[in-house]
Amino acid sequence: MKRTCEELSAQLEEYMDGLLDGPERESFERDLAHCPELKEQVKQLSMLEDQLTENGGLLVPSVADDAFYQMLEAEEVQQNGFRWWHAAAAVALLLLGGFVGSAITNGTGKDQDITALQQDVRYMKQLLVTAMLEEQSANDRIKAVSFTEDISQPDVAIIEVLVKSLNTDKSPNVRIAAASALEKWQNNELVRAELVRSMDHQEDPIVQITLINMLINMNEKSAIKPFRKIAEDEEIEQLVRDQARIGIEVLI
Asked: Which of 96, 129, 159, 243 is deepest in the core (most CB within 10 A)?
C-alpha cells in the first residue's frame, strides 16, 4: 500500500540516518517518487551530507568537525530533536558565509566565484529554514525564521516558506515571527501581496492585530478590502474589528 507524503515525511529522519532495512528503504524510495517536494528535499540533504564528508570539498574537515560537535553540544541535539543535518547545514552555512566575507574583504575571489558562493549561502539558508520549520518545537521553528534576518534580497522560495508558516503554523508565536521576517522585505511586491492575503488565514486575535498594524504601517491600500471583511464579521473579536476599522480610516 502506497504511503502518503505525510507518512514518508515522518520517516525521513530514519531514512537519512540509514536506519531503514533493505525492504523498508526500497519501499520508502518507491513511494518517494510520488512526492516531488519531499524527493527534492531528500536529494538536497544527501548532497549536503556528501559536501560535509568529501575530502577536499568546500569545508575544511577539521574545522567542520569542531564546529559540528560544538553545535551538537550547544543545541543539545539529542534532547530537543534538532536533527543532525540541521546542525550540519548551519555549520556549512557559517563556514561558507565566512569564506565569502573573507574573499570579498581580501579581494581574493573572482566576481563570478563570489557570486556563486553567495548563491550557495542563500540556498543553504533556504534548505536549513525549510528543514527546521518541520520541527515539533515552536522554539526551533522560531529559530528557523531567525536564519532569514540577514537576507536583504529574498528568493521566492524563502518568501514562500515563510508565508506557509505564517498561514499554517499551529503556534501564534511562530506565525508572528514569520510575519515580522516578511515585514523586513516590505518593498517586495510579492511580500506585500502575501501579507494581505494572509489576513484570510488568521484566526488568532494577536496575529490578526499584528498583521493589521503591519499593513497600516506599510500604507498598503489593498488591505482595505480584507479589513472591511474583518470589521463586518461579528464572529471576530471586537478588539480586532475595531483595529480593522482604524486601519480602514488610515488607509482611505
From this structure: 129
Q: Which long-range contacts (CB under 8 A, 24 or more apart) does 201-208 make?
A: 201/166, 201/167, 201/168, 202/167, 202/175, 204/172, 204/175, 205/236, 205/237, 205/239, 205/240, 206/172, 206/176, 207/172, 207/175, 207/176, 207/179, 208/236, 208/240, 208/243
Band of residue 13 on the pLDDT scale cut at 50, 70, 90? confident
pLDDT, tens digit (0-9, with 9 covering 90-100), for 62-96: 444 444 444 444 444 433 444 545 555 554 544 44
Tens of pLDDT along 151-206? 777 888 889 989 999 999 999 999 999 999 999 999 999 999 999 999 999 999 99
Question: What is the end-to-end Cα distance of the chain in Å, rounded?
Answer: 56
State the DSSP code for 4: P
Nearest Cα to Cα of residue 6 among 47, 45, 25, 34: 34
Cell of 113: 566565484
CA distance linking residue 154 with residue 186, whole number of Å: 11
Instruction: Mention the CATH class of domain 141-252.
Output: mainly alpha
